[in-house]
Structures are given as structure tokens and as C-alpha cells.
# Entry
Amino acid sequence: MARIELSHIRHSYKPNPKSDEDYALKEVHQTFEDGGAYALLGPSGCGKTTLLNIISGLLKPSEGDLLFDGTSVKDYSTQDRNIAQVFQFPVVYDTMTVYDNLAFPLRNRGVPEDEVGRKTRDILELIALEHKAGSKAKGLGADEKQKISLGRGLVRSDVNAILFDEPLTVIDPHMKWVLRSQLKELHRQFAYTMVYVTHDQTEALTFADKVVVMHEGQVVQVGTPDELFQNPEHTFVGYFIGSPGMNILKCAMNGNQARIGEHTIELSGLGNPPASQNTELGIRPEFVRLTEAGSGMPIQIQAVEDVGRYKIVRGLLDGLPLNAVVPEDQSIPESAAVEFDTQRLNLYADSWRVAREA
Ligand code: ADP
Ligand code: MG
# Structure
């Protein structure tokens, strides 16, 4: 397996790109360490597939370089890059049996037949298709075909990396969970370099050690699930990760004080207050305390959702939407107010987090 470096990669599908908007990837400068399990997380259209195809060589970037273990592979063919890629939709040979489909990548590389047998049987077990080994792929359902695709991506252990592009889209929810756990287990056993693309935060957070969050053709944060939860570097990360996402409230700064409507919140540890006028406070619903009016900032409650272990209170603070997560057994006051855990408050200027001392 290899360490993969994307060095100042930009990509436009247009022949003569001019402004930033013309680029599907604005600038990506990112290293995937050898043996790391990464998720590439972001909404549809943010550039995940573009990035993956640049790594595997299906796409040549407009600008920048790509290195495997320090060597530029920009001009290498897909074959020479030696990458396994699993796509969103099945890629299988319909006329071959399930077994032969899985054995194909090994035979193609001249692996001895007894080893082919061993590896193929391991993968058949992993994807739970032992009973279909001798069946032609043609007659199988979309989810079974996708499992074959996944298996083909996993059958070789001598690849530089395994790339997964939303591989479980057509798989049913239970099997999705099983396969995801198995992928994680495989990673633990063999320390493959894995990059797993998804738009689903649960999938990303359970699979990966490090999550790379993308937004509009840019990497906005790379972090552990905990880092992304605690300190989103960009308001998009705050909003996209979490359920519900982070509350983001427009505020006016005056020195160390943030003002929301008539309320003032003191922010400690702020070295230099931001020069920008475009400032927002971010607070996760988990760190909003719901109290009786009289202490804290009054809110108008609009809805209460009971989701089992906790309740989501949706309200308005000075006309701005604000969610709070409260324990299941807490009663909801008639006239309510909120308090923020100030240690958990993040300040953003032009959407980027402003550093504060602890
Ligand atoms: P994701 O995988 O995150 O959904 P993509 O990498 O597929 O995003 O797409 C990123 C952007 O590039 C989108 O705006 C998409 O419309 C555009 N795009 C993707 N593929 C092509 C293509 N072959 N030609 C032109 N534009 C494309
Ligand atoms: Mg895609």
C-alpha cells in the first residue's frame, strides 16, 4: 500500500477555465497516509468522484501533481497506478460466474491458481455469496452484483490503495451495516490505504479514522469524528455533521462580546477579535441548555420532537432558528429560555472558525 499525496490539484471540466467557479476541484492539497482509513464526505456535486478518479487515473487533473510514496504518477496509466476502485454501480462480467468475476483481477496479474482459489473463497465468504459461486452474474440482483464489485475491489492485497465511491448505495440497510463493519475489520487486519467516498455522515464516521469533509470543490476540514464534532473549522462542517447540525447564529462583535439581538455573550480567550463584519456563533444543540424564562435568553418554542433517548426542541431566538437537544425526561417549560455552554461556543468569521485559547 502507498502514501498518496495530492499536490495543489485543481480540476476543471471546462476547456478554458477562468474563475474559481469553473473548477470542480478548486485546490486540493491533501495527503492520505499509508494504511489510513479515510472517508471523503460531502454533499452531491462537491467533487468527491472527481477527486477519486484523479487518484485512480481515470481523470487527468488540469493542474497539480499526484505522488505515490513520493514518486509522481501523474503520467502513469490506471493499470500502472495499481489501484482498486469500487464504483457506485456494479461493474461485473455478466457472462462469467460469480467465482470467475472475483478471480479475474488475480488471474489477470498472473497469480497462481491455488492462491486464486484461497483468496476468492475468502472474499465469497466476506460478501456472503458462497452459495452463488457457480452462478452466472447475469441473473443476479443489483445488490448481489454490487457485492461482487466490492469483492473484486478487495481480492488483491498488492494494490497501492482501495478506493470506494459510494459503494453501498444499492445495498439494503442491514447488509450495508454488515459490509461496512467487514470493511473496517479488513482495514484493521491488513492496514490497507482506503479512501471511502460517501455523502452519509454515519457511514463516514463509523468507517473512517480520519474524515475529509468537502464542500464546493474544496477540502474544508480533515479530522477525527470527534474533532469534527467538537471544533468544526468551517460553518459547513458544523451544519453538515451532527443531527441536527450545529446552530449557526449571525452575531455582531464588539471586542470580546458577541451580540445576538439584545443579548450579549462574552467570549473568553479571543486573542484578536476578527476584522470581518461577517461573524457567526456556532453552538451544537447538545450544548444548548433549556431553562425557565427568567434566566438565560428567552426563546419561542416551535416544535418538540421526541426521538427516543432525547428530545429535539426547535425554537426561535430573536427570530433566528435554534435547536436544543434535551434529555428525554426533562419537561419543556411553558415559557422557555436557553443558556449556551460558553466553552463550547465557536466563533466564525467569513465562515471560518476563529481560534480561541482554552
Ligand atoms: P460528487 O461525486 O461529490 O457528487 P462530482 O465529482 O461527480 O461530485 O462532480 C463535481 C462537479 O463536477 C459537479 O458540479 C458536476 O456537475 C461536475 N462534473 C462531474 N463530472 C463531470 C463531467 N464529466 N463533465 C462536466 N462536469 C462534470
Ligand atoms: Mg460522486
Observations:
- The chain has a mean pLDDT of 93.
- The chain is about 25% helix and 35% strand.
